[in-house]
Each structure stands twice: as structure tokens, then as C-alpha cells.
Amino acid sequence: MLNFKEKLRGKDKLETLENYSILFIFLGGITLSFGIGSTIITPRGWPVILAMLGSLIAFLSTLTLILIWLIREFKGE
């Protein structure tokens, strides 16, 4: 686990945030897929909430990544 955390750490704070944001996009996508797949069993309840939570995580992480790229572009890195 420690080696995984070191791989996520970047040269500066923005790169570290970018790496974590990409990780959360993947985790949100996995959660969304698991929630959608679980709705086959029952179309209401926890699977629907899980799908909505996964889509929210992926969406917010994507927005964060776009903001990081904009900050990096305006800073001139």
C-alpha cells in the first residue's frame, strides 16, 4: 500500500491532485458499473443508490481534473 501511495504522489501538489482525481474517476466508474449491474437483481434500493453515488463520484472527479488542468494552463506549467 505504501508503494501505491508513492506512485500517486507527484512532483507538486497539482500533479498529486491530478493523480488522485484520475484514481477517483476509475473508482466512481467501477462503483457505477457495480450499481448498474446490481439493478438486474432488484431495480430499487441500494443498487440504485450505489449507481447514483458512482456517477456522482466520477462526475465530481472529472470536474476536479478539468479545474486542475485549467489552473495548470493559466499558471503556465
What does this structure look like?
It contains three helices and no strands. It is elongated. It has a domain at 32-77. 82% of the residues lie in helices and 0% in strands. It is mainly α and 77 residues long.
| Beta-strand fraction estimate | under 5%
Q: State the end-to-end CA separation.
A: 30 Å
User: What integer is the average pLDDT?
Assistant: 90
Give the assembly state of these chains: single chain
Shape descriptor: elongated
Q: Kindly state the number of beta strands.
A: 0
Structural class: mainly alpha
The helix tally amounts to 3
Helix content: over 70%
Cα-based radius of gyration, to the nearest Å? 16 Å
Order of helices and strands: HHH
Residue windows where pLDDT falls under 50 for at least 5 positions: none
Largest sheet: none
List keywords for this structure.
single chain, 77 residues, mainly alpha, 3 helices, 0% strand
Provide a short characterization of the protein structure.
The longest helix is centred in the C-terminal third of the chain and has 30 residues, at about 45-75.
Itemize the secondary structure elements and their pairings.
Layout: H1 2-8, H2 13-38, H3 46-75
